[in-house]
Structure formats: structure tokens, C-alpha cells
Specification:
The chain is mainly β. Strands 2, 4, 5, 6, 9, 10 and 11 form a seven-stranded mixed beta sheet that branches. Strands 1-3-8-7 form a four-stranded antiparallel beta sheet, with no helix packed on it. The radius of gyration is 14 Å and the shape is globular.
């Protein structure tokens, strides 16, 4: 079992920045690929970014490339999402998720069903 707790959300003006954190507890953090997803009101949960357990591979959805950066610190059991140049359309509840993998697995999940554990979410609101 893995428990995930997000923090760092809030209200920001368009063009501003926020840094989300997701602290994990429970089983070995470095056994998990980690992802960030978001869900806007009335919409489904969509993939934002993910990072391999070793940190050597990262995937972003096209709409955040060049603006968002995912990173992880396995010593601190934490994954981060640095969000710059925020836009009103980035407004959503942001969730982190953990996907248990074998160390040799090169794939990174981009679908919600590929992830085993989820945090409770943190609200990000970008005002125009």
C-alpha cells in the first residue's frame, strides 16, 4: 500500500507559477513510476506528466511541454510538478499517482487505469 499526499495548489494569476509536491509513504517509493493527472470541472481526468522510477525518462502531454517540469527525489519519497507560465485552462484538481513497476520495465503509463494508487488531489486555479 502507498499513501500519497499532494500539496502546493492555490490561486495564481495567468503567467504565474506554482510548484506541486506529492509525498509518498508506505512501500518503496523507488519501485513506482509517478504521474500527475488533472481534472477540470465537468471533464474527465487527464494525463499531465509522468516520470520513471529511476528518473531517467519523462513524458509530458503536449499542452504542458515547455511550461511544466516533473521531477522526483527518491531519498525524500517525493515527486514534484513545477508549473510555469500558467494559463486559465490549467485550472483543475491535480492528482499524483503511483504505478508499481519492475525495474527493467521501460514503459511509462499515461492512462489512469495504469496507476495503482492516487492522492486526494490539490486545487489549482489560474485567474485570467
Amino acid at each position: 500500500q502507498v499513501q500519497l499526499v499532494e500539496s502546493g495548489g492555490g490561486l495564481v494569476q495567468a503567467g504565474g507559477s506554482l510548484r506541486l509536491s506529492c509525498a509518498a509513504s508506505g512501500r518503496t517509493f523507488s519501485s513506482y513510476n509517478m504521474g500527475w493527472f488533472r481534472q477540470a470541472p465537468g471533464k474527465g481526468r487527464e494525463f499531465v506528466a509522468a516520470i520513471r522510477w529511476s528518473g531517467d525518462r519523462i513524458v509530458y502531454t503536449d499542452s504542458v511541454k515547455g511550461r511544466f517540469t516533473i521531477s522526483r527525489d527518491n531519498a525524500k519519497n517525493t515527486v514534484y510538478l513545477q508549473m510555469n507560465s500558467l494559463k486559465p485552462e490549467d485550472t483543475a484538481v491535480y492528482y499524483c499517482a503511483a504505478d508499481w513497476v519492475v525495474p527493467t520495465d521501460q514503459a511509462i503509463g499515461v492512462f489512469t487505469y495504469e496507476y495503482d494508487y492516487w492522492g486526494q488531489g490539490t486545487q489549482v486555479t489560474v485567474a485570467s
